[in-house]
Give the backbone structure.
Amino acid sequence: QVQLVESGGGLVQAGDSLRLSCAASGRTFSSNAMGWFRQAPGKEREFIVAILWNTGTTRYADSVKGRFTISRDKAKNTLYLQMNSLKPEDTAVYYCAADTDYSDYPPSIASAYDHWGQGTQVTVSS
């Protein structure tokens, strides 16, 4: 069993930055890929970015490319999401997810991920 715990969300103004963290733990943590998704009220869960844990290969959604950066600390089993130039439309609950199945490119569909965190709220005011 893998446990994922997000932190770092909050209320910020447009143009500000936030860094989200996702700490992974469990009896054995072995993830092929980890990703960040978000869900705004009344909308479907949206892929943001993912990374292959071992190689560092990344995949970004067009909506955040150039503003958000994913990274990971393998020693700490922690995933990060640096969010810059935040916009009101970035307001959502942000989830991290882990995919323990093999793939050679980070998956962008939610169903590929088999472990999820509880989410952290990010609110961007205009």
